[in-house]
From TrEMBL, chain A:
Residues 98-347 form the G-protein coupled receptors family 1 profile domain. This is Atypical chemokine receptor 2. Residues 1-20 are annotated as: Disordered. Pfam families: 7tm_1 (PF00001). GO terms for cellular component: actin filament; cytosol; early endosome; external side of plasma membrane; nuclear membrane; nucleoplasm; recycling endosome. It is found in: Cell membrane; Early endosome; Recycling endosome. Its main location: membrane. Gene3D superfamilies: Rhodopsin 7-helix transmembrane proteins (1.20.1070.10). GO terms for molecular function: C-C chemokine binding; C-C chemokine receptor activity; receptor decoy activity; scavenger receptor activity. PANTHER family: ATYPICAL CHEMOKINE RECEPTOR 2, CELL ADHESION MOLECULE.
From TrEMBL, chain B:
The keyword Disulfide bond applies. It comes from the Eukaryota. SUPFAM superfamilies: Interleukin 8-like chemokines (SSF54117). One of its GO terms (cellular component) is extracellular space. GO terms for molecular function: CCR chemokine receptor binding; chemokine activity. This is C-C motif chemokine. Transmembrane segments: none annotated. Residues 33-91 form the Chemokine interleukin-8-like domain. PROSITE patterns: SMALL_CYTOKINES_CC. It holds the Pfam family IL8. Residues 1-24 form the signal peptide.
Amino acid sequence: MRQTNAPLRSRAAEPGPRGIAGIPGAPALGVSSAMVTTASPSNLTTEDAAPENGSFYYDYEYLDSVLFLVCTKEEVLSFARIFLPVFYSLIFVLGLGGNSLLLVVLLRYVPRRRMAEVYLLNLAVSNLLFVVTLPFWGISVAWHWVFGSFLCKMVSTLYTINFYSGIFFISCMSLDKYLEIVHAQPLHRLRTRAKSLLLAALVWAVALAISVPDMVFVQVHEHPKGVWSCYPDFGGHGTSWKLFLRFQQNLLGFLLPLLAMIFFYSRIGCVLVRLQPRGLGRALRMAVALVVAFFTFWFPYNLTLFLHSLLDLQIFGDCQVSRDLDYAMQVTESLAFLHCCFTPVLYAFCSRRFRQYLKALLATVLRWRLGPGPTQASLSRGSESSRLTAQEDVTGLNELAQGSAVGSLKQEVVGSH
Amino acid sequence: MASLQTPLLAVLILLSVMLQATDAGPYGANVEDSICCRDFVRYPLPPRVVKDFYWTSDSCRRAGVVLQTVKDREICANPKLPWVKKILQKLSP
């Protein structure tokens, strides 16, 4: 009998009702009636085999063939019950702290009309909503889904929406830089606040569309009695759905954004190298760092996901490979989640202007601590002066554009097109 | 620029509509999902040695039922076979 503290959330839809298996007190047939078996399979059908002789014979030794045995995952589950809650808590704390700080700075000190920060702001919101779901999954792994039916749908939907929107907003930021530097045209402005807002709204809409099945299929299941879990029920088409979902995640969550970023930043790099503006090295390093960071966070996870799909298709692997991939999945997925702690740091804190905002915030907090003083004046002066500079610099790419290079850069770009 | 933005967005929307599906929560938190049967036992087991059973994940390639023997071995069986059905019937309340 499976212990109830180690629930196996079996997902069979057909044939037969769920949740039968683990019911405490299910009849333990045959325990008392020891049976003698030989290696001959012909004996197996004889239910009335001699019930005496050595108790160690009552099972079927010839079944040692590993093929028939289910691939049990007790060690993987024990590992998950420790590792995931600890790691999720860490990401929750780091992500909540970092993104709240980012949000406060953006809302308080960045002038409203700046558009580059639209995506960063949305990214911060997306990351915040994402890390909020992590404690739920942590508790769900360590214990079981204790939050009920509504939260199951809600948290799953939130998870999926923000899983994708975070990645999409990072891609949007590369698109934004691309438009700013490569397609800079003084007369016909492609980057307007309205367009940024529209694109951000679109990202949310697409992410919402991707999460629709969560709202539909995800529900709580009780198995065994008293142990709840929260997962989607696709009826009898589990395998195809699972493969579909994983390839979708590989494609939408990794491959397309990565290709977009590589395309946008390499075009930016080409233009910068041609124009040789001030601060070129720093800008190029920044662009490379953003792409490399995205790749580092997401590649191991997507590789594991892909190998899992191959395993499910039975292209390779055995039970041990399956277990190893389960470990790999837990570790690489958790590492990928770290992106919502580090991406804001990378994007925001590398910007000189953002550091100024942050200093201003810290100064306010410190002076407010020491006693309410006239800090507001100096702060508004600071943001006033930054408002005067013509270019937005969120990624640090554009710090080069703040100087006199801007004019000539734009002229030349326009001329070259 | 609309010439580049529009196709990009169109592709994104198209893909998301085409592939409208998702899984709940992190994969790492769903280890049970990958507990599957790779093969089924070829010979019928006497019902008395099976004390319990559970279904493997719906997302397994082979829909299987795991028979737990009195010796705590977990043996994969094909739920479509008559002898398996009989055992399941017997164990179901």
